[in-house]
Amino acid sequence: MGVVDGPSGVSFGDRGLAYGDGMFETILVRDGTPMLWKYHVARLHDGGRRLGISLPSEKALHDAMAAACSQVQGDAVFKLIVTRGEGGRGYLPPSVAEPAWQCRAVPFDANTACWQGITARLCHLVLSDQPALAGIKHLSRLENVMARREWTDPRIAEGLLLDARGELVEGTCMNVAWCEQGQWFTPGLRHSGVAGTLRAALLDAGFLTISAIDTAGLSHSDAVVVFNSVQGVWPLERLMGSDGQLLAEWNDLALHRTFQHDAHPFLGYPSLIQ
C-alpha cells in the first residue's frame, strides 16, 4: 500500500482522482491527541467495507497521524485520503487493487466567532438519494461543492441541504440538530449525507435522537445548530431561504448553549455556558 504526502504524488491513473473512488477523514488533533479517533476509524472502516477497499491497520494510521502532527505546533487538522489505487477497465475496478493513501497535518484554529451564533441559508441544490453511500465520507462530494458555490456573502456561514422529499439532511460541511421541548434531534441519513463523528458520539451518549423534519418544522424549532468534529457547534441565529427571505430567527441562544455544553468536551473545546 503506497503512502504519499501531498497531491504532487497522485498518479494520473489513480481511481480517486478519476472517479472519486475512495474515502477521506479530517481529524482534529489537540496536544497530539486525535479527537474522536475511534469514531473516525470506525467510519473509515465502514466506508472501506462498503466500497471494497482495503485499509491500513489502525496502528499504521495512528503512526502516520502522530508523525504528521509532530511537525505542527498547537492544534492541528490531520487529513487522510484513501483511494482504491490504480487499475481496472473504465469504471470496473481491478479484481486485486493496491490502495493508495496520503495524509497531511496543518495548523488549525477553530472559528470561535461562529460559536456565538451564525446566519445560515437553505440551498437550491437537492441531495440525491443513494443509500449505498449514505453516511460514509467518500470522495465524490460534487453535490457539496455545488451547494457551497451558491453564495459568497461572508455573513452566511453555512448552507442547509434538503432531499427530494423536502426533508432536512445536513449542512454543506456540517451535521444539523434541532431542539423541540427540550429534546435534541438530528436527521437519520438513511438516503444521503455524511454521518459525522461528533454526531455519532452524541448519539451514543444519548444527547441526540434520530428524527425527520422539513423546512417549516425547522423554522418553528426551539433551537437549531450545525456542528462537526473540527469546528464544534455553531448556533443558528437566523435562517434565510434560498431566495434571501428570512425564514426564522432565534434571539435567545440559551438552548443552543446547552448543546455546546454537551458537545464541546468531545473535542476538548470550552463550554460557553457562564
CATH architecture of the largest domain: Alpha-Beta Barrel
**Class of secondary structure makeup:** alpha/beta
General shape: globular
Distance between the termini: 50 Å
Oligomer: single chain
Rg over CA atoms: 19 Å
Classify the beta-strand content into a percent band.
25-35%
Mean pLDDT: 94
**What is the total tally of β strands?**
14
CATH homologous superfamily descriptor of the largest domain:
D-amino Acid Aminotransferase, subunit A, domain 2
Task: Provide a count of the helices.
Answer: 7
What is the chain-wise order of helices and strands?
EHEEHHEEEHEEEEHEHEEEH
The structural domain count equals 2
Low-confidence stretches: 1-8
The CATH class of the largest domain is Alpha Beta
Please give the share of residues in helix. 10-25%
Biggest sheet layout: 9 strands, mixed
